[in-house]
């Protein structure tokens, strides 16, 4: 077995062999900064900036006629972006729409698919999912007249980092009406086996959906092939659509034609929308699950960003992501030995998302020290440091430098000058 090469020259050689290296120049990267927080907010690309200014200009040039005129008419922009994003979720174009936010889209999906009847009155989730998903599920349970404490079943983690799929399947009792799970756990980066879980849910007559926030743009998906019922996500992490950028949702075409739980103006079939009838004719596509008017200027950067993804290809991006995160883990194991760090993410390629999760008792102040040294990480309570070397714009050289900086911080105990407490925004 070859010994792992920890040299700077090796990192540079890996960058020379990187077929995706040219895409780095597409992004605005702050000088003397190593940005490893793309799993929270992706960087701005020049193309995203161009499509934002282009759509702003269409408002200037066309006024209200921008709904039907220009390079990107606003009226069907959400559908066109659904077409562009569909390869990233493994779905047909009509099954995907760019709209809303993660939480509003989750409310829409649960309002539509949570139909408690007889014994089936409960929703199944997990205890490690992102808090906003739990808030939405609790809210929808209460709106149906049930107690959220007793009717939201959360699968426990055995180790505080991962969720065992066997435990999820065991919890799929005859009382479960709906299942909502993350595709990738936001702390540990664990990928859940969505195909297996969907198959097991459907065997029991349970509708199942996934939150793809920490997977879309980082891993490959096959929502249609796996027969998943629905999915929701944001576009501002790996897809680089900008802070608060418009989200997206997928609905399996077998569910087309039903009235959405939260109907609105843009739920309408396009040719019927301006008939102004008080009876909704829902779109025969995922477009039916839109609620209000598209947020055109917030959607705009995604147009340019998705052009980059189409050129790079999600398979190549996933390959580099696996390689560069594996390289980071190897460096951590060699360079940070005995410094109190634990790698809390899965090491297996098939189970690891797009980021590394380091645990340390001084995590909050270590993150502050990293920032003071020009490395941008992400703290997650209570003791996690997330590091995301994003395939589109991060380099092996940056990974090498960031681990050397972290090693120096620990050796010199630089972190001790900071309070071990998170900031207002972690």
Structure summarized in a few sentences:
With 426 residues, this protein is of the alpha/beta class. The chain is built from 13 helices and 13 strands.
**Helix content estimate:** 25-40%
| SSE string, helices as H and strands as E | HEHHEHEHHEHEHEHEEHHEEHEEEH
In total, the number of strands is 13
Please give the order of strands in the largest beta sheet: 2-8-7-6-5-3-4
The averaged pLDDT comes out at 96
> What is the alpha-carbon Rg in Å?
22 Å
* Gap between N and C termini: 40 Å
Q: Describe the global form.
A: globular
Largest sheet: 7 strands, mixed
Low-confidence stretches: none
Structural class: alpha/beta
How many distinct helices? 13
Q: Which strand-content bin applies to the residues?
A: 5-15%
Structure characterization notes:
- With 426 residues, the protein is an alpha/beta fold.
- The chain is 36% helix and 12% strand.
- The protein contains 13 helices and 13 strands.
- Strands 2-8-7-6-5-3-4 form a 7-stranded mixed sheet, with helices on both faces. Strands 9-10-13-12 form a 4-stranded antiparallel sheet, covered by helices on one side. A two-stranded parallel ribbon has the order 1-11.
- The protein starts with 7 loop residues before the first helix and ends in a 15-residue tail after the last helix.
């Amino acid at each position: 077995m070859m010994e792992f090469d920890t040299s700077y020259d090796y990192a540079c050689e890996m960058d020379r062999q990187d077929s995706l290296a040219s895409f780095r120049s597409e992004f605005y990267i702050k000088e003397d900064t190593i940005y490893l927080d793309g799993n929270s907010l992706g960087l701005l690309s020049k193309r995203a900036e161009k499509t934002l200014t282009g759509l702003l200009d269409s408002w200037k040039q066309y006024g209200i006629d921008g709904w039907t005129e220009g390079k990107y008419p606003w009226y069907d922009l959400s559908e066109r972006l659904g077409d562009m994003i569909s390869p990233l979720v493994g779905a047909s174009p009509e099954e995907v729409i760019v709209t809303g936010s993660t939480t509003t889209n989750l409310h829409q999906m649960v309002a539509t698919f949570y139909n408690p009847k007889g014994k089936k009155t409960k929703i199944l989730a997990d205890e490690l999912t992102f808090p906003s998903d739990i808030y939405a599920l609790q809210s929808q349970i209460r709106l149906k007249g049930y107690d959220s404490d007793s009717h939201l079943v959360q699968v426990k983690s055995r180790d505080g980092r991962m969720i065992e799929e066997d435990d999820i399947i065991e919890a799929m009792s005859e009382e479960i009406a709906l299942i909502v799970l993350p595709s990738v756990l936001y702390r540990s980066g664990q990928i859940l086996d969505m195909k297996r879980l969907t198959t097991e849910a459907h065997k029991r007559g349970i509708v199942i959906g996934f939150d793809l926030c920490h997977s879309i743009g980082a891993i490959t998906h096959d929502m249609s092939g796996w027969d998943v019922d629905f999915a929701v996500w944001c576009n501002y992490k790996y897809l680089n659509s900008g802070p608060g950028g418009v989200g997206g949702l997928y609905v399996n075409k077998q569910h087309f034609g039903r009235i959405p739980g939260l109907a609105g103006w843009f739920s309408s079939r396009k040719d019927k929308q301006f008939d102004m009838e008080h009876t909704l004719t829902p779109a025969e596509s995922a477009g039916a699950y839109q609620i209000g008017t598209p947020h055109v200027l917030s959607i705009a950067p995604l147009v340019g960003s998705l052009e980059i993804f189409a050129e790079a290809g999600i398979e190549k991006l996933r390959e580099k992501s696996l390689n560069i995160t594996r390289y980071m883990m190897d460096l951590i194991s060699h360079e940070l030995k005995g410094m109190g760090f634990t790698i809390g993410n899965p090491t297996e390629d098939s189970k690891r998302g797009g980021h590394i999760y380091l645990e340390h008792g001084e995590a909050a102040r270590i993150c502050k020290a990293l920032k003071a040294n020009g490395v941008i990480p992400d703290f997650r309570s209570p003791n996690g440091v997330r590091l995301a070397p994003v395939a589109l714009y991060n380099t092996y050289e940056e990974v090498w430098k960031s681990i050397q900086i972290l090693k120096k911080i620990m050796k010199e105990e630089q972190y001790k000058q900071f309070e071990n407490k998170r900031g207002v925004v972690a």
